[in-house]
Design brief:
The chain is of the alpha/beta class and 433 residues long. It is built from 15 helices and eight strands. It starts with a helix and ends in a 10-residue tail after the last helix.
């Protein structure tokens, strides 16, 4: 029951949000029947709704949400605060059953507002993701075949899907015996997506993506698994294996993609520990030209940083609406907590600096940058980073998603674009044209 609740889909169907809203509406309707002071109930609802809306817009202007609120989020906040205010006023009246219903209304109103705002953002799919924990089941990994790579660039031509291949991939937690060990970073358990082709008796060696979500956030594979399943459905079950790993350590921390005394060795974890584990546990192409580092928002900043810092480990990168550089939203805090007050070290850790350090190392490497064309916070940095990568020698693909800000739509459409852009480079599809 606990696992079911933690992994219940909060966004996909919208049924949960609608059900909670209906319960709230019923409670409010009951309280509105012959109240002792009807004007108080109405006034509290109206003033609460107006106050909730103004509060949402004020916090938005103050930068609390780190960008514009998505469509309908302010309205959900307004409705929730208005209904909760009516519940508080109704709780001051008799008899006892009215007080009980009023208390229920307050709770339901706040839950409704939270679910509505979460749906507007479209990023956090489960309660486990909201709480920052891993609640997926652990599954045994497929046995290593020991087969050679063949020519990974033509896998799309040589692969024949067996008749008993699953129609969808499998998502599970990398915990317990399958947990990825770290030499100095306390990471939350990662998750893994195995495409249909990885689940057959004699699987091919596949490309691999190591992906990160944003901050606040948790290693939730929902979005990338859906994107890769969609790709696999059109490519005979072929898709990269994907690991969704934790670059934060806790839901609100920001190690800024660098090893530090404050947060531990997060860079070593991603660029040494995880690659070593991949080689010894997964049926992947050994040539790191077929290895991708990727991420969304905070994770996108890490992906670009590590793709620039470690061209020997990552052959490609996908940066979905990433920060222009790690710590861009709170520079002085990052300098103080991650770099021990050393501003020069902070500058040297930016991806632009690593592109200079490793100049001449990016021929044949691919970089994908996507962002919402209405994202004034992250969009300009994505455009600047795409230009930097182009100048450094990457083959660059970039996409501005129309009518979108910094929400789940950008993540989902950005992933679809990035996977398609990388497909031929990873040997999963014929070259375009």
């Amino acid at each position: 029951m606990r696992r079911w609740l933690l992994t219940l889909e909060l966004i996909g169907s919208g049924i949960l949000t609608q059900t909670v809203a209906l319960v709230g509406l019923l409670a409010l309707t009951v309280l509105a029947v012959r109240p002792r002071h009807p004007w108080r109930l109405l006034l509290s609802f109206v003033l609460g709704t107006i106050g909730g809306y103004l509060l949402a817009r004020t916090l938005e202007t103050a930068g609390v949400f780190e960008g514009a609120l998505p469509k309908n989020a302010a309205e959900w906040i307004a409705a929730g605060v208005g209904a909760a205010a009516a519940g508080v006023v109704a709780a001051l009246t008799r008899p006892w059953w009215r007080r009980a219903i009023a208390a229920l209304l307050v709770v339901v109103a706040l839950v409704m507002a939270g679910l509505g705002v979460n749906t507007s953002y479209g990023l956090t799919h489960t309660l486990a993701a909201i709480l920052g924990i891993q609640a997926l089941d652990e599954e045994p990994l497929p046995a290593l075949t020991g087969a050679g790579d063949g020519d990974p660039s033509t896998l799309y031509e040589t692969w024949t899907a067996p008749a008993d291949m699953p129609t969808k991939g499998r998502v599970s937690a990398l915990s317990g015996d399958e947990q990825i060990p770290s030499t100095g970073f306390t990471a939350r358990d990662a998750a893994i997506y195995l495409p249909p082709a990885a689940l057959v008796d004699d699987p091919p060696s596949l490309p691999v993506i190591v992906f990160m979500m944003g901050q606040p956030g948790t290693p939730d594979p929902t979005s990338i698994a859906a994107a890769l399943d969609a790709f696999a459905a059109e490519h005979d079950g072929l898709a990269p294996i994907a690991i969704v790993a934790d670059q934060l350590g806790s839901i609100n921390a920001d190690p800024a993609c660098a090893d530090s005394t404050t947060y531990g060795t997060v860079s070593t974890y991603f660029n040494s520990d995880i690659p070593e584990w991949i080689r010894s546990h997964l049926n992947v192409v050994s040539d790191t030209s077929y290895w991708v580092i990727g991420g969304y928002s905070n994770g996108g900043a890490c992906a670009f940083t590590w793709g620039a810092q470690h061209p020997e480990v990552w052959g490609s990168l996908m940066d979905i609406s990433g920060n222009e550089y790690p710590g861009s939203e709170h520079e002085q805090q990052t300098i103080d907590t991650v770099f021990d007050g050393d501003a020069d070290a902070f500058e040297a850790a930016k991806p632009a600096s690593w592109l200079t350090v490793n100049a001449g190392s990016f021929d044949g490497h691919v970089a994908v940058f996507t962002y919402g064309d209405e994202d004034e916070t992250f969009g300009p940095g994505q455009q600047a980073n795409a230009a930097l990568a182009q100048d450094a020698g990457f083959t660059v693909y970039s996409d501005a998603i129309p009518g979108a800000g910094h929400t789940g739509v950008v993540l989902d459409e950005g992933l679809a674009f990035a996977i398609d852009a990388l497909a031929s480079h990873l040997g999963l599809a014929a070259p375009a044209g």
